[in-house]
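Lecture 7 notes. Example A: sequence first, then its structure tokens.
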Amino acid sequence: MKNPSQLSKLSFRLPDFDHRLSAYALAATAAGVGVLALALPVEGEIVYTKANKHIVANTTAHLDLNHDGIPDFDLKDVYRTSFYSAWGSLFAVPDRGKNAVWGHTDHFSAYASALLANVRVGPKGQFLPGAGVMAASSFLGGRARYAIAYGNGPWANVMNRYLGLKFVIKGKTHFGWARLNVSIDPNTVEVSATLTGYAYETVANRPILTGRKHGTDESDIPTSSEASSATLGRLARGAGSRRPGN
């Protein structure tokens, strides 16, 4: 059993200990909030726009991904006829120098890829230096019974495919997608399309998955709980290395 002198010393130190503990808790909380603010990923969001825009022969649809009044891409439909022949084409055209469409080249032609859903569009994407053909068709030869009709391109007669897009907002690169249905009329070889939706990532240089309408690509950034746990762990290690009263 403790003697009175020991109890006296203990009761004398308790208020001082409580004061030090409260001060430390406040300081740790303040520091924790500051560090957490730095550790957490930059908040952003995917902005999705639903659409039902029909693109027919000899028309152009302007695509303004971020709704700032400045077109980012053009979806250009061209149709020409001559005697018993006809040609139809659909192009994806960047409207500004640093904007680009995901695609590939083949036999000196550039094609815009018709991507499936959940393709990661980001800095490592295969982007063209200029416009890309989406679909093309032709009707060649004299009379109809001797004519030969062609239809080709990645977008010839497809449903729910995606354009992978890279564009610039205030000098910074962002990524997005546009979803379209494309068809070629077998009689007139006209190419037509319907733009059904498009989206972009508001955080610069952050990838986006084709078809994703909200959230972000979690594989690129830590979650809030991961960032919080890491930060609290660092605070705990820092606290453990200090001795009471120092």
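Example B, a different protein, same format:
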Amino acid sequence: MPTPKKVQEVAEISELLKSSKLTILTDYRGLKVSDLQRLRGQLRPLQSNIRVVKNTLTAIAADNVGLEAIRETLTGPTAIVTTGEDLAAPAKVVSDFARTSRILTIKVGILEGELVPATAVEEIASLPPREVLLGKLVGGMQAPIYGIVNVLAGTIRSLEYVLQARASQLGGEGSGEAAA
């Protein structure tokens, strides 16, 4: 018979798995508590969190949300990193931490309900931050508009040069007649 505390924890893990845009399952075996706290501190400003979970409860929660495929990765100590709106920054923090600590390993990721390998999490980590991507998108949308404006302005400028040249021709002859 499950205890109320375990039922609540399964519900919390289920909610984390459902609500997080990117969930990263990690193996923290051998990691010091101070290192885990440092990682938690790096994730907090990014609206992300790391939580140590029990594999059996996580497996039940995964079954509840339709992620039965992660059962295979639930071996050894497991910590779940959940992200907010920005996917790249928390993935970069976890990836960099795993690379520098050489202890933390990324088992698998869950990207909006789909299981992705650890290499995909590394690729997400290599993406630029959300603000930079939005800036590139806006710049890409503005470039054709500026091109059209320059083409239209070039045509008007050419017409202006032709009219000025013709006015100079006529004005040169007309100015001589006006002086006489």
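Note on Example B: Residues 167 and 174 are 10 Å apart (CA to CA). The chain has two domains: 4-127, 129-180.
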